[in-house]
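so the lab meeting is tmrw and i was supposed to have these ready like two days ago... anyway. pasting both below. for each one the top line is the aa sequence and the line under it is the structure tokens. i havent really looked at them closely yet so no promises
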Amino acid sequence: MRILKIIFWSVWRIWFYILLGVPILIMFPFLFISILKESWYPYFFRMARIWAKVILYGMGFYYTLTKLQQPEKNKSYMFVANHTSMMDIMLMLCVVKNPFVFVGKMELVKIPLFGFFYKRTCILVDRNSSKSRFDVFERAQKRLSQGLSICIFPEGGVPDDQTIILDAFKDGAFRLALEHQIPIVPLVFYDNKKRFSYRFFSGSPGIMRAKILPFVTTEGFTLDNRKAIRDTTRMAIYKELLEEQYEPVAKANKLTT
């Protein structure tokens, strides 16, 4: 049985990289045209959402979205979520309709085809370079001034320890949101770690649930409040993940009493 699982996981993971590249090849002329001007980014974003859905459905995933608050059209937001899987990018693109720009790590540029467009459309950060971190703020400010939103995974990466429910948040997303007085939109991805973690021999097709939590306002607050805003956002996501983790135990205890 273990051998069959290893064969499945190997084929499945290879299939993921095929799905990653084939839609880009098919849409390449249109994608390339859409990145020639920054003002055309919303067209690129629409195609990126199609690409994300092809990958999700092609991998055997389907998603559900619960909204406790609805983002408005033509308004800028700071979207943040817990980060546990490569599928977080795809799921974020699927569930958020407001055109946004990712702030992401430099290493993903190395992925063939994907890296070509990733480099030209996302805001890249080298976390070991203070200059790079400063450049991120400049580029993000420019994108926000164009009416776009920003998406950051504030943990700064996927924790190596798989037992960590939610790692500490870095300040960048909250500083940007405060400087521009835009609402912070916390999202919770419940199943991505279980469905498609960074461990090669793991995962399975199935549901990927997402929830948009009530927005965290920044209006009237200053940079002096960034730690409080950051901790409020993190706690909202953490509570959801913690309740999800212990809900099956609570149900089992209720059945036995």
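ok protien two:
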Amino acid sequence: MKYISTRGQVEPKGFIDTVLMGLADDGGLMVPEHIPVIAPETLNEWKSLSYVDLFLTIFSYYTNDEIPADDLRDLATRSYANFRHPEVTPITKIDDSLYIMELFHGPTFAFKDVALQFMGEFYSYVSKKQNEIIHILGATSGDTGAAAIQGVRGKEGIKICILHPHEKVSRVQELQMTTVDDQNVLNLSVKGNFDDCQKIIKELFGDLAFKKEYHLRAINSINFLRILAQTVYYFYAYLHIDQGQHQLKKINFSVPSGNFGNIFSGFLAQKMGLPINKLIIATNENNILERFVQTGEYKPGDFRSTYSPSMDIQVASNFERYLYYFVGEDAAKVSEYMNILKSEGQIVMTGDDLAKVQSDFAAYGASNQECLDMILKYKGDHDYLLDPHTACGITAYEKYQGDDEICITLATAHPAKFDEAIILCEIEQEFPEEIKELFAKPQYQEVVEHDTAEIVRQLESFYALD
């Protein structure tokens, strides 16, 4: 298996080099040259696998044996050993048509832990093997930063800098990042929104001389490793619901998604042969993805702060990966589309093209009020407390559910991370002890302007301490 860029100007790379590259050197995103397709009988055999064994089995199709099997098992085992549930991503049945897969049992109580705990172990492994300092650089709308920091804090040979939008993440998200006082961690609170932070990251990774000089590595979902690790839980969920009861029904996934990474992981699983019926994109009032699916217009709109801040994103990085498969893996067409987006500020699909998009996805953007209403409804009807992102997912599920279908909705965060929304519902929740402790800790962060030159100065000072 080799990996290529969606824009076609990068020589094929192996798995490790692909992960280390992060954003492709031509500005595109790395994808596998071909997607392995799993036969139905093989899928059936996977039902008995533990989460770690399923992870290793799926990764074996992609890693080219570049990591010895025993080493890969050790990395995966360590990655999931500190999850609070033995199944890693357990599934809760709500009723005969709805299951919720809980992705928040990792150390930072969010789905990003599933991929980033492994990524931290992977980068540490590569740093030691190659005797090279690794500088991880990323932007976060809240959860990625905390999960990435937790995955690499204190590890030798690795430094991490995370940009987050100043005062636009939840209080718990902010504390999870900024109460870390390890010498290899730098938190920059940027006066702007997530898209501003993400744009700076792409600029810095696009400066190939700067990227090479400082050994920059990506942890955002522009990195294919993130996508692949998240693909595992789609297989796990599909294979572990009660299919004896539902074998005649079609199975959908409703996925809270802002940067298109989580939903693209489901798209990849589907292309690998997982018989998903509908992939439902759940967004909030920053609904660029809903507008794209429903009207064919991919155009960033006005930024809105919502009760689900991890999805407060207008420019979805992983959209380009979908575009690559949409145009039949034609890198020249992808480049043409991305140039149109850059010059005209939008991409528009019509006719048969729009019909194809709508055959791949359904989408719904929940309003702030719908989000709160759904939290109240499920607490009252099922005694299940949703976080606001999962509430968006449930809203989308209710919008698109058919009579002959069941849905697995991804619960992307623990509600304690977003108590601002829960309080508005007049619900009092009990915080996990790990989150309670955050409020008494001092914070360590630098508040900076939305200015690439200032970010570079901060990074060069941080890296000079190696």
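from a quick look at the 2nd one: The mean pLDDT is 95. The first helix runs from residue 15 to 21. will dig more after coffe
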